[in-house]
Design goal:
The structure is a homodimer of 125-residue chains.
Chain A: H1 13-26, H2 39-46, H3 50-62, E1 66-69, E2 73-76, H4 81-105, H5 110-123
Antiparallel strand pairs in A: 1-2
Helix pairs in contact in A: 1-3, 2-3
Chain A binds a DNA duplex (30 and 30 nucleotides) through helix 3.
DNA sequence: TCCACTGTTATATTTACTATATAACAGTTA
DNA sequence: TAACTGTTATATAGTAAATATAACAGTGGA
């Protein structure tokens, strides 16, 4: 698992770690029940304090994505992919609703929004 | 002009003020060349420091939405409709970037997102 | 000119958050 | 027992947000 963190970022380090692991779990780069690096090991790799890693793990556990067992380690929680996907679709729907509201209030045509959509989704392929 | 701020919010107070005034300008609740409340007056209303209000006004001036004249006050800048539209397009772009990120992380196809897009933009016509 | 308003600037302080270092404690397993 | 695991407590440093206070300067009416 390769995590890249930036201390010049406006996102806190613990959050960057949290996001990276969350993404890895969603992409199945981290499988169910797979053990995560120990807080100290990952802290060493990233040259940061183990407390910062622990903070990230704590957040992930609170969200239900990993399970930590004292003395053993932290493990990817059994996941419900359908549930995650449903939740994600809902998030996307909410964001698109916001887009619609802004475009409507500001007289920005559907066509213009669609063009932005195309650009963003194509340039990242 | 009624601005509601929350000190329990994760958004800084100066940013909440900034956003509220920005929205008021975009919605034409604040007209061109209209005088804004003085930093001290608004600070009194909101029971906060005038420095926090000044911070918000400074940001708005830097963005070109208001114009401050020492000794006189702060005024809504002559509206640059292009500027506002650019801002709105930027907001939409940011939201679409979020949509893209979520779809990418969650392995949701562009096609699925496009379908959601169609539904939302069509059902409101 | 005086006064009451306007914005500006400088300094110091408080609070919260992020991140760190260090040490000690406890569970797991070979 | 040794070497891992996670946990907890304490103290410290840096930063950002917000505050309080005071002094300074421009505007405009009485």
């Amino acid at each position: 698992m390769d995590i890249i963190i930036s201390n010049s970022s406006d996102t806190p380090i613990f959050k960057q770690i949290e996001d990276a692991i969350y993404e890895a779990i969603c992409n199945d780069d981290l499988k169910e029940n797979e053990m995560l690096p120990s807080v100290r090991a990952l802290a060493n790799d990233l040259k940061i304090s183990f407390l910062t890693v622990k903070r990230a793990y704590d957040e992930l556990e609170a969200s239900g994505f990993i399970k930590t067992i004292p003395g053993k380690g932290s493990f990817v929680a059994p996941k419900n992919l359908d549930l995650i996907k449903e939740e994600k679709l809902k998030q996307i729907q909410d964001l698109l609703e916001q887009v619609y509201q802004i475009s409507k209030v500001s007289n920005i045509s559907t066509k213009e929004v669609q063009e932005l959509f195309q650009i963003i989704f194509e340039e990242n392929e």
